[in-house]
Amino acid sequence: MNGTLHVAYEVCDAILMRIQHLNHSTYQHQYHVVWGTKYRRKILKPYVLKELKKSLYETCKKYPTLWIESMNTNEDHVHIQIEIPPNITISDAVGKLKGLSSRHLRSKFRFIREIYLEKDGIWSVGYFTSTVGLNESQVKKYIEWQSKKDKPQRSRLF
Asked: What's the DSSP call for residue 37?
């Protein structure tokens, strides 16, 4: 596969879920990630949101194994459903998204530069993350099904 990314899909409970392949792994890792603006300032107005989305999608173009499934915001925080491969830590991916988007928004909007005079960025330090995907009962059924899958089938000739 030479480091290329291959995409497959699996239908699971009527949800189309991507299955990704790297050189030595196959994965299906999606996360719900939330982070807020520093001091919970309400700066994510519709015109800022347009530039934020542009910046986040540009970051994913630079790092093609990152993939944003969905995104939404309030005026003071961001929600993203994102696919992150196993060879990139969640903290590294979130750090890149927050860092590059902070620089982009500061360069585009004077009022943001004036609100956040320090060079630390516009986002609060932390973030929330949870996994998205198969639930426990689905995983258990899949594992149990594996032993049935491997049994040879007898064919009848008559």
From this structure: B
